[in-house]
């Protein structure tokens, strides 16, 4: 558990948040005057509208029009800054931004719970015959850079180096189990992690994650050190076990997420691995305006149906509330629920709304044990932990609670306390309460 401010401290933090917000408003009114303040807000709003509209045009058009939109998107905030500078109001804007940021920090600190439960840890003896699969190319060559192979061998592990894309990683893991391995581990990307984790869960063996991939989302949400993957090997000598959930899409396991719609279609492109930015920019116009890609129908549990979203993300436990793209983090991996995020973007206003948490009807966010994604297409593109697949429709996702035993170092960075949503109603009640 992580100790947080006592109730009295939280009440004063809530009051500080309101005081800081009031100070920010007073600063603008006193520093710029009422008329100038109105003009300041109008100029800022106009600049943001122009910038966000230009970004939408950049994403949904090609050729000269795309780059004209990019130039306008850059010019809009620069123009607003020049207007403020001419009016000698830059100091007001900077002061307002600092005070408002202070309000957000104080408000979120006040709304944190008195404690945050960590996932349960279980003591377990060190493995006698650990078997580790390492991808030398993953993460730009982290296996060699951190000398992971030799360090693992010194700790008594058998190491298998992947020597090409055609290796059946799952079969390598199965053969290791047949040969007597009592722990399976991977130094590589999340897609490879998921394949071997499925074998470990099937045989009830502990699984070791070594953060040698490019993004290492699974390692991040386990609280491991992503900067130094060699520290993950400490678990072989002084480790504890966590019981975490596994997601399933069809007959495939995922440790992070399964994505459908816009993102999955982009990942399917043969050129995506060599030119991710170029392929994404080329396909986005048709995907966002509905000219390409299957029309999705999402059934969440027995109650909720979502029709026609452009992108759907089904995750092994939900992502944080401030994340609309599955690029953030999950604060628990043992909650027993899938996270479901469906996004509708119908124009510039919706695109702008995503930056502020989404307008009504733009984002559907929920949790469930079972999700079904259907389409008129017989085969549906799916990104499973970043790997491109084609699966027959309907595609069914489920979660297996506590299916995987993960061995982690006893001493590791850990997962931070999640930031709460800034709820003004709760904040007001806290600030006005006496006990």
Care to describe what's here?
- The chain is an alpha+beta fold and 435 residues long.
- The protein has 3 domains: 7-117, no CATH class; 126-246 and 403-409, Probable inorganic polyphosphate/atp-NAD kinase, domain 1 (Rossmann fold); 257-401, Tumour Suppressor Smad4 (Sandwich), CATH 2.60.200.40.
- It has helices at 7-32, 34-60, 63-86, 90-111, 142-145, 148-154, 169-178, 190-203, 217-221, 262-268, 276-288, 348-354, 424-432; strands spanning 122-123, 130-134, 158-161, 183-187, 206-210, 239-249, 252-254, 257-261, 296-300, 304-307, 311-316, 338-343, 363-368, 370-375, 379-384, 387-392, 395-409.
- The strands form 2 sheets. Strands 1, 2, 3, 4, 5, 6, 7, 9, 10, 14 and 17 form an 11-stranded mixed β-sheet that branches. The chain has a 6-stranded antiparallel β-sheet with strand order 13-12-11-8-15-16.
- A hairpin with a 2-residue loop joins strand 6 (239-249) and strand 7.
- Helix 1 (7-32) crosses helix 2, helix 7 (169-178) runs parallel beside helix 8 (190-203) and helix 10 (262-268) crosses helix 11 (276-288).
- The chain is globular and about 80 Å long.
